[in-house]
Prior knowledge:
This protein has 113 residues and is mainly α.
Amino acid sequence: MELILAFGIGILTASGVWLILRPRTFQVIMGLSLISYAVNLFILAAGRLRVDAPPIVDPEVPADPALYADPLPQALVLTAIVISFAMTALLLVVLLASRGLTGTDHVDGEEPE
């Protein structure tokens, strides 16, 4: 499971970096989104990968932190998802406004040959 997650994080990061280096603004925005997904997965994996762990403490069972899922990485990732969604929406609005003013979506403002 950890190996699959590490490969997934690596592929998302590599794809995001490749898209950030592209000349079109939309591709840069998609690259930033992929990198934010990779960081979210990394933060979630840092909180231990547990399967079938209860998310809350049961009052009848003695409190042993090793038996429960860590809620802090989950809260951080949830907050990061909301913020990245808002930033992506803002960047797309700025992209549309820039394209309306300049007539192109290239970073340097000129069409490639």
